[in-house]
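Lecture 7 notes: from sequence to structure.
We start with the chain below.
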Amino acid sequence: MSRPTLSHIIWDWNGTLLDDLALSHQLTLEQLRANGIAPISIEEYRELFTHPVSLFYYRLGFHLSPLDFPRLSHEFHLEYARRRHGVKLHKGATESLRLFRQYGLVQIILSAHEQSLLDGSLELFGLRGLLDQAWGMRDTIGHSKFENGKALLSTLGIPRNQVLLVGDTDHDAEVADKLGLHCALINQGYQDRSILTRTRKPILSSLFDLQDWIMEGFQLPALPLQAARGSPGC
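Predicted structure tokens for the same chain:
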């Protein structure tokens, strides 16, 4: 049986390539404390987290008016932007982007992060040269990524069965299903494995495992540049 062709990878950002769960948990704890709500562990955070993010806040115990969540989200992201310099990429993030760029894959970020925050983070980590596009949100409300994903695909003009979406939440799986894309989930981000399992998508423990899964399961556009040129003496 022939392997499906892969030409594009759409990457989620927060929790998939960026290891920022601990920062988000800490900022959430501070908001809980400020509003007199009981704290949660990072394990509980991963069990409760969902999209839209307003529903996550409801699960945490916030009773939100229409104005409360935008205010809380704005405060969260202001503090996030101030502290993000202490956050690192997941192990294998840069290596994965470099590897698949060598194979000729188009790589795009599709994130629920606000666009300017996303752009700033990509500049901070020096990843712009490894990516073809980066799609974030117009605000900090944490909407579904479906509409942006739909708009993105309309600009690509390629068969959707040549696109893989890589994320860390059931929302990523939902977006992939609605858009007709392949999907793989990384179990080191914002949701617990028990939640990811319900999506019935492939679940990988690390980005290095994802590399192997892609190489074994898909036909890629080209050989790595070095291999294509041949080794010295050949």
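Points to note: Residues 227-234 have pLDDT under 50 and may be disordered. The chain is about 45% helix and 15% strand.
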